[in-house]
Amino acid sequence: MANHQEVDGVFVALADPTRRRVIRRLGHGPTSVGDLAAEFPITLPSFMKHVRTLESNGLIRTVKVGRVRTCVLNRERLAVVDDWLAEQRRIWEQRTDRLERLVTDEEDV
User: Which residue ranges does the record assign to the HTH arsR-type domain (predicted)?
Assistant: First the structure.
C-alpha cells in the first residue's frame, strides 16, 4: 500500500491533461523528449516542466544517450492509483452492504 504522499504526487501529476497524454503516448513505448514535445502546441521549456513533474513523481524515467533524452513509462507506479481506487471501492462496498442490510432487516421486522 502506497503512502498518502505517493498517492497525492501521482494524482497531482495525472491531474494535467498534457501529462495524461504523455502517459498515454508512452504506453505505446519509449519516446524521445523531442518527439513527444512535437505533439504538443507548447514551448519545449514548458513541456520539460511536465516531463519533470512526471519524472519526480515516478511515473516516467528518462535516459539520456548523447544528446537524446528518452522517456520511458514506469507502469509499476500506476499501481499506486489502482491500489488507492481498490481500497476506496472496498470501503464503499462495505458501507453500501451495511446500509442494504440495515434497510432489508428493518423491512423484515
Answer: 1-93
Residues 6+ away with beta carbon under 8 Å from 63: 69, 70, 72
Structural domain of residue 63, as residue ranges? 4-105
Strand-pair category, 68-73 with 31-32? antiparallel
Are 83 and 5 in contact by the 8 Å Cβ rule? The answer is no
Checking DSSP bridges between strand 60-65 and strand 68-73, what pairing results, if any?
A: antiparallel
For the full predicted model, state whether its pTM sits above 0.70. Answer: yes
Q: How many domains does the chain have?
A: 1
Share of the chain above pLDDT 90, in %: 89
